[in-house]
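Protein modeling request. Please complete all fields; requests missing the sequence field cannot be processed.
Requester role: graduate student
Desired output: 3D structure, token encoding
Chains: 1
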Amino acid sequence: MSTQADAAGRSSPVPGRGMDPRAARSRAAALAAAQELLVEQGWSAVTHVAVAARSGVGRTTLYRHWPDSSSLIYEAIAQRIANARPTRTGVLRDDLVGQLNGLRALLHDPVGERGMRVVIERAGVDPTFAELKASLYQAGSGGFRAIVERAKETGELPRDLDTELAIDQLAGPLMFRRLLAERTFGAQYVHTVADAFLAANPPSRHGTADGSDEG
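Delivered output (215 residues):
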């Protein structure tokens, strides 16, 4: 059985520049069909047969791009994650708010929300979905990780801050409120979470971005 990392390597969420336009259209149609099936009927409905019937893309083509259903589900969700990824500005608070707003959009998007619920539910009983969950976590948390690591280097966040804990503090409240409490929330909640995180993790008092001590 292929690993989810293999699936990710075979299927990039964003087609390369050199992709044939017809192939790009087929991939887009297949992913749209997979996303619709996921929302309407759940993970078990996302099969090559069902996607082919809804999208008009041949099963041979589907199997060439996505050898199994899990790789198809992976890309259907990963595409939404990629679409929610903001452009970073280099300003810590702005970047945190932007990243959190991307997560907020993903959690309120039917495909993103249903996909995450399915993966979390199935991961405990299906090793393939456990791999899927790990891969999606890396894809979804990468933006937070890059922002936090850069801020630690510049002294805008404590240099001894545990990066994984920081991601928990940032993304955790949004995941809890939407997936467990099943509540909707807007941009103001995002700003509150970002400001609470920054207040709890003030800048390093000593040292500058180049590592020298401040006078």
